[in-house]
Amino acid sequence: MSGKTLYDKIWDAHVVQQDADGTCLLYIDRHLVHEVTSPQAFEGLRMTGRKVRAPERTIAVPDHNVPTTLDRENGIENEESRIQVEALDKNARDFGVNYYPVSDVRQGIVHIVGPEQGWTLPGMTVVCGDSHTATHGAFGALAHGIGTSEVEHVLATQTLIQSKSKNMKVEITGRLAPGVTAKDITLSVIGQTGTGGGTGYVIEYCGEAIRSLSMEGRMTVCNMAIEGGARAGLIAPDETTFEYVKGRPHAPKGAQFEAALAWWKTLYSDDDAHWDKVVTIKGEDIAPVVTWGTSPEDVLAITDVVPAPESFTGGKVEAAKRALQYMGLEAGQKLTDIKIDTVFIGSCTNGRIEDLRAAAEILKGKKVKDGMRAMVVPGSGLVRAQAEEEGLAQVFIDAGFEWRLAGCSMCLAMNPDQLAPGERCAATSNRNFEGRQGKGGRTHLMSPAMAAAAAVTGHLTDVRDFMAAPAEA
Amino acid sequence: MEKFEKLTGIAAPMPLVNIDTDMIIPKQFLKTIKRSGLGVHAFDEMRYLDDGSENPEFVLNQPAYREASVIVAGDNFGCGSSREHAPWALADFGIKVVISTSFADIFYNNCFKNGMLPIVMPQEAVDVLMKDAEKGANARMTVDLESQVVTTSDGEAFAFEIDPFRKHCLLEGLDDIGLTMEKAGAIDSFEAQAAQSRPWV
Fold first, then answer.
1. pLDDT by residue (tens digit) across A432-472?
2. pLDDT tens-digit profile of A135-179?
3. pLDDT band at residue A473 using 50, 70 and 90 as cut-offs
4. Which residues bind [4Fe-4S] cluster (chain A) (predicted)?
5. CB A22 within 8 A of CB A164
6. Which chain B positions have a beta carbon within 8 Å of A144's beta carbon?
7. Whole-angstrom distance between the N-terminal and C-terminal Cα of chain A?
8. Nearest to B109 among A147, A158, A252 (CB)
């Protein structure tokens, strides 16, 4: 009998009932809710006369539709968006769930607010009608996205009907080179395994390079587990995690914290645990990367050139041809020669304080290139406040960035923050799909520091060119 | 939920790999607070030209495929966003079955909640079914959930696997929530026990 993985341990602690065919009823500790994927679920409860079973475990915040301009207290201009946010206001009130309305300084992207407020804790099950729920895996919580029907199921029963996934280990050994960040790790993994490489698995990220990351960096890594197809990404909790959690508004206090800590310390994969798939990448081999195409697997080192479709196999050949046409790129073109129009820094992938610090570090004393549009959208009102306190906001403003209010913004462009057809964007978000940031918009994904460097030069840029003397690796 | 038992219909070929849920239903249509009426927006950016007219090159706009009820797709169909608006849009268009070598996890789950059947097949089988789909409206494919078989217009049959619980729910049109609410006692006990062992949660 082999040992257990971290995923096995969390799973086992949440099984309410197991059927003969292996289907389980899994208990859900935290249910996060936003305005886009929940109205039909609340409506379903009303139509059937059902209640929210555990409103105290349910946390709602509007993020996808909310304007991020400073005048948003005047209301939402787009009628459909306004109705959707108003529906969440009403549903949160009617069903009595925890709520952070647009007017609350704690409002922000649901995946940033949850950890910030201490709702997300190690060993929990966390779900949300949003694929980037994977973010919370950074705490050693089993966290994944669900559809609206499942949102209704969790609201009504606080459980989900689930089959267990397989275990996949992604180990990043050694240390990262200067200029290489958590975003480069997570994109490089997807570049190697493909967008379907994690399908059917829960990934645990481990290794020295992962251990060395802050909680912010770990959240960036786990956030994009879904882009690799995995149900969830996990990182075993350690002192870094406990330190982050301690003192947060909804984290346990005093003796409760000590009791929790004792259990959290058992949450790691046993040495003899069974892995169905293992991927190992040397930290030293990871370069600052960007995406060139319309799938998050289209990842290359910034020093590379746009690939030829013929260099791929199978269905990817046609997909790459289509991607180059959509992106307006030629095979063989140097990535650093690609000119950009817009820079977007923000999202649940890279909208935390550390991300803003990294971008501001590059921008200090520099200007956004003439004619470009650049915006920073902090992940929450509290991130925004902290960045103002640390003087980062002034760095962005002095450089020529727009300093916005919190929300999902141009990551998916449901609010007015959108790309025009053909507009090319250096983005710190998570998806470069066709039309994702606006119909015809062209997205290159990268780290906050790389996006900041691109804002200064006006083209995709190797951030290492912006670093003073090379630091010791 | 509507039952799914057996279907004979036109299959549309969509060989592109990694068709994501942003392609299936772009974000501007997620602002609805209803489940219905999304069919007209399915594949919006591929299906309509900038002036709003239909793109004649898009498969579901071609006369042979306007009534399609099956899609045979490239690898990793439904990747990306968890939006259930994707299966809602497909179902509203009339698509009941999607066949591919692989599906993204959340999209796959979402299909079953809406009376749709996603079928995973090996590459060789998908290749044959794709060819069959390319024949157009005269070639009708049959999908039989009870016997777990897809049959081409030429009578070539391919078996597929499906989780028994999901199959049962589709065949009977069962509502998951109703089923789970019958287990309220077990959920109560779990909560009572968790309140002891993990009181901080």
1. 999 999 999 999 999 999 999 999 999 999 999 998 654 44
2. 999 999 999 999 999 999 999 999 999 999 999 999 999 999 999
3. very low
4. 348, 408, 411
5. yes
6. 106
7. 41
8. A147
A455 and A372 in contact (C-beta within 8 Å)?
yes
Question: Which amino acid type is present at position A433?
Answer: F
Chain A hits for B42, Cβ within 8 Å: none
| Long-range contacts of the stretch B120-124 (C-beta < 8 A, 24+) | B120/B160, B120/B161, B121/B150, B121/B158, B121/B160
Interface of B with A in 115-134 (CB under 8 A): none
Q: What is the ipTM of this complex?
A: 0.94
Query: If pLDDT is split at 50, 70 and 90, which confidence band does B194 have?
Result: very high
Nearest CA in chain B to A81: B31
Q: pTM of the prediction?
A: 0.96
Q: What would the pLDDT profile of A344-376 be if each residue is shown by its tens digit?
A: 999 999 999 999 999 999 999 999 999 999 999
Task: For residue A398, give every residue at least 6 positions away whose Cβ sits within 8 Å of its Cβ, in sequence order, or none.
Answer: none
Are B16 and A315 inside 8 Å of each other by CB?
yes
Torsion of CA B179, B181, B185, B190, to 10 degrees: 100
CA–CA separation, A260 vs B111, rounded Å?
Answer: 38
Shortest CB distance from A158 goes to which of B179, B187, B199?
A: B187
- What is the maximum alpha-carbon separation in chain B? 64
Burial B118-142 (b: 16+ CB within 10 A, else e): bbbbeeebbebbbebbebeeebbbb
- Partner A, chain B 156-175, Cβ-Cβ below 8 Å: 163-165
What does the block give as tokens for B85? 């608006």
Q: Which of A406, A342, A335 is nearest to A377 (CA)?
A: A406
Topology classification of domain B6-197 = Aconitase; domain 4 (3.20.19)
- The edge-to-edge listing of strands for the beta sheet with A232-234 is A232-234, A201-206, A166-173, A277-282
**Among candidates A156, A227, A413 on the partner chain, residue whose Cβ is nearest the Cβ of B177:** A156
pLDDT (mean) for B91-102? 98
CA distance A395 to chain B (A): 32
The reply to whether B22 touches chain A by the CB within 8 Å rule is yes
**Closest CA–CA distance from residue A440 to any residue of chain B (Å):** 9
Q: Are A119 and A59 in contact (CB under 8 A)?
A: yes
Task: Report the residue from A196, A200, A263 with minimal CB separation from B75.
Answer: A196
Q: What's the CA dihedral at B35, B39, B43, B45 to 10 degrees?
A: -90
Amino acid of residue A188: S
The reported pLDDT for the residue numbered A469 is 53
DSSP A108: B
Is A408 annotated as a binding-site member? yes
In the stretch 74-103 of chain A, residues with CB closer than 8 A to chain B read 78, 80-81, 83-84, 87
Cα separation of the two ends of chain B: 34
Where are chain B's structural domains? 6-197
Q: Does A287 touch chain B (CB under 8 A)?
A: no
Q: Among A13-22, A73-82, A461-470, whose mean pLDDT is lowest?
A: A461-470
Sheet holding A58-60, edge to edge: A98-99, A58-60, A30-33, A125-128, A142-145
Query: Going from the N-terminus, what domains does chain A have, and what CATH number goes with each?
Result: 6-277 (3.30.499.10), 289-466 (3.30.499.10)
A24-27: strand order across its sheet? A15-18, A24-27, A159-162
> B150 to each of B17, B21, B66, B145, B168, how far by Cα in Å?
21, 25, 21, 9, 18
Inform me whether the C-beta atom of residue B100 falls under 8 Å from chain A C-beta atoms. Answer: no
Q: Which amino acid is at A301?
A: A
Average pLDDT of chain B, as a whole number: 96
Spell out which residues of chain B touch residue A439, defining contact as CB-CB under 8 Å: 26, 45
Q: What is the pLDDT, as a whole number, of residue B17? A: 97
